[in-house]
Amino acid sequence: MTEAPAAARRPIVRTHHGDAVEDPYEWLRDKDSSEVIAHLESENAYTEERTAHLADLREKLFQEIKGRVQETGLSVPTRRGGWWYYSRTEEGAQYSIHCRTAAADDDWTPPELQPGVAVPGEAVLLDGNVEAEGHGFFSLGAFDTSDDGTMLLWSTDFEGDELYTVRVRDLTTGETLADEIPNTGGAFFTPDGSGVLYTTRDEAWRPDTLWLHRLGTPVADDVQLFHEPDERFWLGAGITRSRRFLVIAVGSSITSEEHLVDLRGDLTASPRLVWPRTEGVEYSIEHAIVDGEDRLYILHNQDALDFELVCVPAEDPQGEREIVLPHRPGRRLLGMDAFRDFGTVEYRSEGLERVALLDYASGTLEDIAFDEPLYSAGVSGNPEWHSPFLRLGYGSFVTPGTVYELDLATRELVLRKQAVVLGGYSPADYGQRREWATASDGTRVPISLVWKRSFGEPGAQPRPVHLYGYGSYEHSIDPGFSVARLCELDRGVVFAVAHVRGGGEMGRQWYEDGKLLHKRNTFTDFIACAEHLIGSGTTTAAQLVAEGGSAGGLLMGAVANLAPTSFAGILAAVPFVDALTTILDPSLPLTVIEWDEWGDPLHDPEVYAYMKSYTPYENIGDASTYPRILAVTSLNDSRVAYVEPAKWVAALREAGASDVLLKCEMVAGHGGVSGRYNSWRERAFELAWMLETLGLA
Questions:
Q1: Which of 271, 288, 365 is nearest to 326 (CA)?
Q2: Taking the alpha carbons of 577, 578, 584, 588 in that order, is the dihedral positive or negative?
Q3: Is pLDDT at 54 greater than 80 in this prediction?
Q4: What does the pLDDT read at residue 116?
Q5: Active-site positions?
Q6: What is the DSSP code (8-state) at residue 67?
Q7: Is residue 638's pLDDT more than 80?
Q8: Residue 43: what are its φ and ψ, rounded to 5°?
Q9: 3-class DSSP state for residue 659?
Q10: What is the residue-wise DSSP string for 484-526?
């Protein structure tokens, strides 16, 4: 067996706040170095050699995933203007094909499309497989049609760095126009289809500028509509569902500000400020017409930790506020959507997502009820200002992704489609429930469990457990179905999610208690969940594998340092394990934006000391006690650079870790490889490693 790659030690000294730190592996950051590329390729070769005996299992798992998926499938068509838009997949093809067919004026019931059956009047707008030809990576970014349905724009990324090139096609002639806009973020048509609105990024990869491109003119002549100079703030833009306003939104992790341009007038007019930015105040707006008057519904957290909803005149948004939904601790308002005759409100209560209808006249909420104790639900796929139906996405750990439409006249939930799971899948064969761990400070931390019933209830006897966690940015890990997960459940593995602080599952305070100078709570909560599962007899340390990605990868690195003997293995995907180095360098992509989440160690010695006390790369102990570790990354990741896991793995090995692997995709981004078959193979690789770690290979 080949020895593990040993990166050369080339120490540099980094000094901040009087603290000198030696970093022997920072040289691996030079992505253009042939030596660095050679090192990453040697890591890949070593990982392949160490896992070669799992090749048959990987192939079996891939075939299991593939065998459960309806490879030739269609989405539920969505009505926009005079067309039904949908996508379809074909067996053997990696990417979706985007299509449309004409809609009758008074027909709001989506056509029932059947795999393998030709759709009358189908027009193929874009075939992702054709776009991807000749490229090792392909990602479709923007995809938009003009309001009159005559023009199409789309954007593509062939590197994985999330810089997209926009192109435009005339759908009446099929001609692709000469207009080509490189290095964009988001993009969409102006309402009349004569121009494209798009964002660009600064050198730190931050979307900071909104532009207007008139079709048929040089990109060099594009008009800058808005620029955000503050390095902490991202910029985004969109058009209200009413098609009345262009909304320009800028925001950091904790502060936001929005501007409006009335689309009845000059698009290049100076945007009108809604509310001036106030540090720590977040808000978002929706436009509605109530009793004939233009109103803005504003969801905000000023003196309202879990947010409240107010209504103001569109012409005077800084005037008197009418409280529609007052702040209620424990009811975290997440979002509001405005339609012609009603609104919808999504909120979180008792750890679950809820969806409700909002009556404009009375301000009352009408909850939409679902039967399962654990589920996810949300408003999705409703581009029209007026429709007799409201479309909802739904799913749970045991219920495949489902599309419902609520008949607004009868309040009946109409099933439009549920993802087909082949191979005789029955939700009744699987169970899901929530348990509670007790953290070191007494906080109760929820854990979601899902298992196959034929293996018995969790806790009856110790079983292999796969524990997942994230815990940052107020991002909640809600119940969701996974075909790939069935490969584990059907082998007796219990899948668990630790809903740790730093996420948003239990409201805004849950997030606040897991960020900045409270970040350690995220790590100790996860360890408490592991200890609960072991102490309750659900599993043992030798049967427990942990997984997390991105900021969840930081969580993985931290728990490896804090509780190495509590886990048999740790899978860290695109892991943020060298966080202090990254957050100290404002020249790196997205660093300054992250200061609101982690703190500013560059200027604040307290934050520096706190971060240094937990960041994985700086706190590796006696690695001979560490569990098996698999780190997965991508060379072109613009969010968490490949160098972080590369340095971490090198340091782990130097400290004595005997079973640490690094797998680096050489043509991919933050989301990993592109193409559904490639993604299934990637997941099969990870599952095979986890199953072997759990003794199930």
A1: 365
A2: negative
A3: yes
A4: 86
A5: 550, 637, 670
A6: H
A7: no
A8: -65, -45
A9: coil
A10: HHHHHHTTTPEEEEE--BTBSTT-HHHHHTTSGGGTHHHHHHH
pLDDT value at position 160? 87
Could you report the per-residue pLDDT of 142-151, keeping only the tens digit for each? 999 999 999 9
Contact 543, 464 (CB under 8 A): yes
Instruction: Report helix, strand and coil shares of the chain as percent, to nearest 5.
Output: 25, 35, 40
Would you say 98 and 143 are in contact if contact means Cβ atoms under 8 Å apart?
yes
At 210, phi and psi to the nearest 5? -110, 130
Q: Are 510 and 332 in contact (CB under 8 A)?
A: no
* Rounded mean pLDDT, 107-132: 93
Q: What is the pLDDT of residue 675?
A: 84
DSSP 268: T
Closest by CA to 493, choosing from 329, 349, 655, 694, is 694
Residues near 457 by Cβ (< 8 Å), separated by ≥ 6?
Answer: 431, 451
| 491 neighbors 465 (Cβ within 8 angstroms) | no
pLDDT tens digits, one per residue of 476-526: 999 999 999 999 999 999 999 999 999 999 999 999 999 999 999 999 999
Contacts for 638 with CB less than 8 Å, ≥ 6 apart: 160, 161, 162, 205, 589, 590, 669, 670
Q: How far is CA 469 from the centre of its chain?
A: 14
How far apart CA 454 and CA 535 sit, in angstroms, is 23
- pLDDT at position 588: 83
Q: Give the whole-angstrom CA distance, residue 298 versus residue 125.
A: 36
**Within 13 Å, how many C-alpha atoms sit on residue 244's CB side?**
16
Which phi-psi region, left, alpha or beta, contains residue 607 (left: φ > 0; alpha: ψ -120 to 50)? alpha
- Nearest to residue 4, comparing CAs of 697, 657, 671, 689? 657
pLDDT digits (tens, 9 = 90+) for 401-446: 999 999 999 999 999 999 999 999 999 999 999 999 999 999 999 9
Structure tokens, 124: 């193929």
Which H/E stretch holds residue 434? strand 430-438
- The b-or-e profile of 527-555 (16+ CB within 10 A means b, else e) is bbbbbbbbeeebbebebbbbbbbbbbbbb
Burial class (CB in 10 A: 0-12, 13-18, 19+), 644: buried
